[in-house]
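Much of our argument rests on the idea that a fold can be written as discrete symbols. The record that follows shows the chain in one-letter code together with its fold in token form.
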Amino acid sequence: MAYADQQMSGNKITALVIVALIHVFVGYALVTGLAYEAAKKVISKVTTVDIKEPEKPKEEPPPPPPKEDTPPPPIVAPPPPINIAPAPPPVQTVITPPPPPPVVIQTAAPPPAPPPPAPSKARGASPKGQGSWAARIQANYPTRAAREEREGRVGVRVTINAEGRVDSCSVTSSSGSPDLDEAACDGMTRYARFNPALDAAGNPTGGSYATAIVYKLN
């Protein structure tokens, strides 16, 4: 390639020199009166010279790349038909809220049970030395009733104070003889003695007592 470029440069210089000489010759011919025809012939010969540039060596095209063994394309089977089932009916989901937690009401602990009550010491009035005072009541037999030989049974009820003595007397069942009824209550008030009644705590209290006085002659 460098040699060809140098040869082209030499040819161009030669052509330029020739052209310059032609111009000098033409000018000289015009000045010296040379024939016009002679100058025209020379100019036509010189101007018609073709300067051919040397042909560039053709570059050989690169060899094509070797063909690779391409595997055949895979056989694609057509997809099987797809049966599209109808869409199922929509399912409505009902979310039930959970029940509220039970309300726990805290109550105060019940008070302790009271201790069982002590056994009651209550009791009613009872005769005290009944044989003694009953004999004294019999000994005071009413005189008129004894003379008339009247006998009878008198039911009485007496109230007794905390000291065990009779405060009052009433006839609950009459003997039929007023003097016997009166003698019975008078004898109970004067001679009868009792163990007083007691309350639940065992303290003496008032009470009552019922009995019968029998008047009978020997």
In short: Confidence is low (pLDDT under 50) at residues 1-5, 46-51. Residues 126-215 form a domain with the TolA/TonB C-terminal domain fold (CATH 3.30.2420.10). Residues 97 and 103 are 17 Å apart (CA to CA). The chain has five helices and seven strands.
